[in-house]
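BUG: 3D viewer hangs when loading the predicted structure for this chain

Environment: internal workstation, default settings.
Expected: structure renders.
Actual: progress bar stalls at 90%.

Input used:
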Amino acid sequence: MLNHHLNMTKINIVLGLVIVVLSFYTIIWHHQNYLLEEKSKVIKNQNQRTMALRKQLLIEHSEKISGAEIKQKALNALQMKPVDPKKVRTVLL
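Structure tokens produced before the viewer hung:
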């Protein structure tokens, strides 16, 4: 009978230790997930900033190429008249 109680005590101790070890592993796993989530948020924010800057640079570049900004400023600020292609003459030197 004493041997039976001793075996039950050993089994309970082993089960208790297993539960404690698994609890530590769970805590470590959750902490690693938290760190990974934070890293993911930082990378996502950097990616959004990079994409916004890229988009802004593409818009500025396309405006410079097309000259639309210069034309609009000339028409609005300087109150120049739009060019009529029929009235343009070629000058030969």
